[in-house]
């Protein structure tokens, strides 16, 4: 005699969810009964179905769309290994063209508030002049650079931010944008 399958004791719903949409199997379905004891479900395998997305995966997907739209020669797969809170794309004049959703959580500014602004809106009285100078020089030379800055949230709270600025090209010579990868530390 087969034992009954207790949904609350399942570690993963792959088998159960895989049967959804198939013809019912009365013998198997009669075995799927809830128990009186509740146990947490450890995995649903829904990430592969894109039902739930992390902010990072959503940001990378949007960055892929922007790269395709602008024909950037940017290897997006490099970002899959990076730890970041926010991505910021600026044009050549350092005007913000796009920010990821994580930008709002990190800074308090919603994307609509900062598009059209310059990233220096996050800088304040204690932001290092030397770091700002290094960023400015790297941008002028169209070179990647890394720095740690003291930035300020919308409410005036200071926070440390690790930033990596990457120039974006559509070919080896035509520079069109900058990408900043930001992580609050």
Word description of this protein:
- With 185 residues, the protein is α+β, with helices and mostly antiparallel strands.
- The protein folds into 2 domains: 5-49, no CATH class; 55-184, Beta-Lactamase (2-Layer Sandwich), CATH 3.30.450.
- It is built from 6 helices and 7 strands.
- The protein has helices spanning 14-18, 26-29, 55-70, 102-107, 111-114, 129-140, and strands at 5-6, 32-33, 86-91, 96-99, 145-152, 158-169, 175-184.
- Strands 4-3-7-6-5 form a 5-stranded antiparallel beta sheet. Strands 1-2 form a two-stranded parallel ribbon.
- A hairpin with a 5-residue loop joins strand 5 and strand 6.
- It is globular.
- The termini are far apart.
Average residue-wise pLDDT: 80
Indicate the low-confidence ranges by residue numbers: 35-39
Number of helices: 6
Shape: globular
Distance between the termini: 58 Å
Strand order of the largest sheet: 4-3-7-6-5
Radius of gyration (Å): 23 Å
The assigned CATH architecture of the largest domain is 2-Layer Sandwich
The CATH homology group name of the largest domain: PAS domain
Q: What's the number of extended β-strand segments?
A: 7
Roughly what fraction of the amino acids lie in strands?
A: 15-25%
Main sheet specs: 5 strands, antiparallel
**Helix percent band:** 25-40%
The quaternary structure here is single chain
Sketch the topology as an H/E string, one letter per element.
EHHEHEEHHHEEE
Structural class: alpha+beta
| CATH topology heading of the largest domain | Beta-Lactamase
CATH class of the largest domain: Alpha Beta
């Amino acid at each position: 005699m087969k034992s009954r399958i207790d949904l609350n004791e399942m570690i993963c719903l792959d088998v159960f969810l895989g049967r959804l949409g198939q013809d019912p199997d009365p013998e198997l379905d009669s075995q799927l009964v809830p128990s009186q004891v509740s146990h947490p479900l450890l995995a649903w395998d829904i990430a592969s179905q894109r039902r739930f997305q992390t902010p990072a995966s959503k940001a990378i997907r949007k960055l892929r769309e922007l790269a395709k739209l602008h024909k950037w020669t940017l290897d997006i797969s490099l970002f899959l290994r990076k730890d970041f809170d926010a991505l910021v794309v600026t044009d050549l004049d350092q005007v913000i063209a796009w920010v990821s959703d994580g930008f709002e959580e990190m800074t308090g500014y919603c994307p609509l508030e900062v598009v059209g602004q310059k990233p220096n809106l996050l800088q304040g009285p204690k932001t290092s002049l030397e770091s700002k100078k290094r960023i400015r020089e790297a941008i002028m030379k169209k070179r990647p650079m890394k720095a740690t800055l003291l930035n300020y949230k919308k409410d005036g709270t200071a926070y440390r931010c690790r930033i990596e600025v990457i120039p974006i090209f559509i070919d080896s010579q035509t520079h069109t944008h900058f990408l900043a990868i930001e992580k609050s530390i």
